[in-house]
Amino acid sequence: QVQLVESGGGSVQAGGSLRLSCRTSTYTYRTYCLGWFRQAPGKEREGVASRVSTGRTNFADSVKGRFTISQDNAKNTLSLQMNNLKPEDTAMYYCAAGIERWDGNCGEYKYWGQGTQVTVSS
Is 122 exposed, middle or buried (0-12, 13-18, 19+ CB in 10 A)? Predict the structure, then answer.
């Protein structure tokens, strides 16, 4: 059973920063793709960032240069540092885990955290 425990989130004014963390088991952390997704009311879920087991990260164009991923290998925790937040970043954020494909990229995400709300006011 893959478990993902999220923390962080909250409310901040535009231009501010927040940090989300996702803690999981050692096996999941070391062998699965881990990703962050978000879903705003009335909108489809979108991928924000991902990390494959080698540590390589990828970011959506909308957050590049503002969001970064940090990896605490001792605590099996993947964190999403969000800087220069904008009102359009307001959404429920989810941590997810998925199997890596043979090509080293992330396949389908099958396991999801409970979500944490991020609200950015203008």
Answer: exposed
